[in-house]
Amino acid sequence: MTRDLVRAIAVALVLGGLTAIAAPAGAERQLPGSQQEIQLSFAPLVKRTAPAVVNIFTTKTVQTRRFSPLFNDPFFRQFFGDRFGQPGPSRRQQNSLGSGVIVQPDGVIVTNFHVIEGADEITVVLADRREFRAEVLGKDERSDLAVLKIRNGTQRFPFLPFRDSDDLEVGDLVLAIGNPFGVGQTVTSGIVSALARTHGGISDLNFFIQTDAAINPGNSGGALVTMDGRLVGINTAIFSNSGGSVGIGFAIPANMVRTVISGVASGGRVIRPWLGAEGQRVTPDLAASLKLDRPAGVLINGVHQGGPAYRAGLKVGDVVLSIDGRDVEDPEALRFRITTKPVGERAELRLWRGGRLRSAELRIERPPETPPPDKTEIDGMHPVQGATVANLSPALADRIGASLLAQGVVIMEIRRGTAAQGFRFRPGDIIRDINGTRIETVSQLKRTLLRRVDRWRITIERDGKELRMVVDR
């Protein structure tokens, strides 16, 4: 069999019978049945979907300083000082580009957060070369998604409907549409190489569709399209040692995209549901000790008192194997399954407890805002001076990317030139203990810092590790 014939058969696997919309999700895949099927093309699908994929151009103002190399010479600096002759900051325009997908006929667009991050102006260019200004409706850095809206009034635009990304199978053919390297709209084809990739390190919520459709810089925010002409993912990153495509691309699943759009529509900020529990991946050794047939699921090692998992009956030591029939293999997959469920619905959990299979019903809820944050800038003569702190609640922990089971007082901001900056505190640090007093609230922190002491002993938690410092007064 020749290589050209093999390629033709691969194309026909996708396009067999493609006159309007391919076979529905779940239908049996079939080999081509005739020479005519082998000669089919992607062109009808591209014509139907490409108009909804746009190019995004952003402009932002950055400040720079220019220094003469003479001022780095110690000979000149001893006469003129460190600041003599140094020009003030200059401003320049920095441009970048990416892709986006129109998902509603009124001009709502989904793209990657990193495509529009820091932009002062956003211009959208349609496939027919029309240009529009766009505004940001909402953004979600943790999922690397942003939602834009074309400023045009009542005009209708071509758009792509969503496909349930949970229906995808490894081996399904897909098209990637975007604007790689700024050369203009480009279409590439490939297959779904893997599902539920959770170790990309790309965003805070790692759960990706992997594809070998060529994705390059500039494709970010573009569409991953299935053979029925629906949007199944937003292309977001590649794995590459050279900066070009090597056949490993990642797309954010459509089910996560819909969750972000829904959150933006209901108030401009994405508030994700929470489980009220945390866990770890089950290793082969853990599986053997738990009498599991194979390493699978998430071993629960912490449950929030009064949270959804607690009320559903989950306990430390349980292994969550699936949610609504979808297997979960690690904590990232568990988080994805929970965060993409609508608030108010119920989810069926399959558990492994004490060597037996069990089930539990979980109510999907938003993380609570209790205790209230009581956001306060701390002043005084002590190492924490200049830090803005707040009480940790599950909702606040979700916004800043901390553990949703974390409690206590967290540093939100640090003012420049203050003692807190000098002692290298960081936003996200949780103040655990000061001079033997456990810190649980902002008011307790303020009272503790009013004490007159000769030495400060402070314990903080940073990235899951405890750090201690001793400062003489």
Structural class: alpha+beta
Instruction: Count the E strands.
Output: 25
Quickly give the CATH architecture of the largest domain.
Beta Barrel
Reported for the largest beta sheet, the result is:
7 strands, antiparallel
- What is the 3D shape? globular
Q: Class of the largest domain in CATH?
A: Mainly Beta
Distance, first to last CA:
82 Å
Count the domains.
4
Number of helices: 12
Strand content: 25-35%
Mean pLDDT, as a whole number? Answer: 84
The amount of helix comes to 10-25%
From the alpha carbons, calculate the radius of gyration and give it in angstroms. Answer: 27 Å
CATH topology of the largest domain: Thrombin, subunit H
Q: Which residue ranges are poorly predicted, with pLDDT under 50 across at least 5 consecutive positions?
A: 1-23
